[in-house]
Amino acid sequence: MDFAVLGPEESCNGDPARRMGNEYLFQMMAERNVNKLGKYTFKKIVTACPHCFNVLKNEYPQFGGEYEVIHHSELLAELIAQGRLRPQKAVDDVITFHDSCYLGRYNNIFDAPREVLAAVPGVQLREMPRSRERGLCCGGGGAGVWNEPKGKRRVEEIRLEEALGVDPDAVASACPFCMIMFDSGAKNLGVEERVRLRDVAEVLAESVGVEL
């Protein structure tokens, strides 16, 4: 598999600017990125962030950016199905998976991250009551990751308490925004030692013997 990265040429896709209402800034960033990507020949864009996935796949076509965009959980599930990645080492954890809004409800990708986790020997998947199409937001979407909530309860704490309710060893996600929110929530609730927070790729990497 041939791949490349933009390196120092890469810049934010502008999703946070659009979510916060700065449409002018978003359009500037989108047009600049479309022009930059137009200099290269490639077949797919892979991203580990559902927010990036959503904006590149569904919103960049407004600016002439027509790309095949895949989320890293989809790629990993595909490589496992093809036998090109072989999980071997057991990860003896009960894991509950949190559905990112921009991966799940916005783009209907529910199975791929679960397939990755299910392929790892020793992993026991345990679903929260609100999952898949009914999954509860972590509070980070819509630029919430940068805002201080004004309510009595923080959304990430509510969601993390739901996760802890199924007594997992780890809470997994496939979104860096969700991971940031849960890290904050775990510290606020004082449960950092009780449960680990992991991206699905980290669980898979442990099983295939890759050190991160």
Query: What assembly state would you assign to the polypeptide chains in this entry?
Result: single chain
Shape: globular
Estimated share of beta-strand residues: 5-15%
- CATH architectural arrangement of the largest domain: 3-Layer(aba) Sandwich
Strand order of the largest sheet: 4-3-5-6
Q: What is the makeup of the main sheet? A: 4 strands, parallel
Secondary-structure element order, as H and E?
A: HHEHEHEHEHEHEH
Q: What's the overall average pLDDT, rounded? A: 93
Description of the molecule:
This protein is of the alpha/beta class. It is 38% helix and 9% strand. It contains 8 helices and 6 strands; from the N terminus they run H-H-E-H-E-H-E-H-E-H-E-H-E-H. The strands form 2 sheets. It has a 4-stranded parallel beta sheet with strand order 4-3-5-6, with helices on both faces.
Secondary-structure map with pairings?
Elements: H1 15-19, H2 23-37, E1 45-47, H3 50-59, E2 69-71, H4 72-81, E3 94-97, H5 111-118, E4 124-125, H6 155-164, E5 170-173, H7 176-189, E6 196-199, H8 200-208
Parallel strand pairs: 1-2, 3-4, 3-5, 5-6
Q: Which key features would you list for this structure?
A:
8 helices, 9% strand, globular, 4-stranded parallel sheet, 6 strands, alpha/beta, 2 domains, 38% helix, 212 residues
Provide a short characterization of the protein structure.
With 212 residues, the chain is of the alpha/beta class. The chain is built from 8 helices and 6 strands.
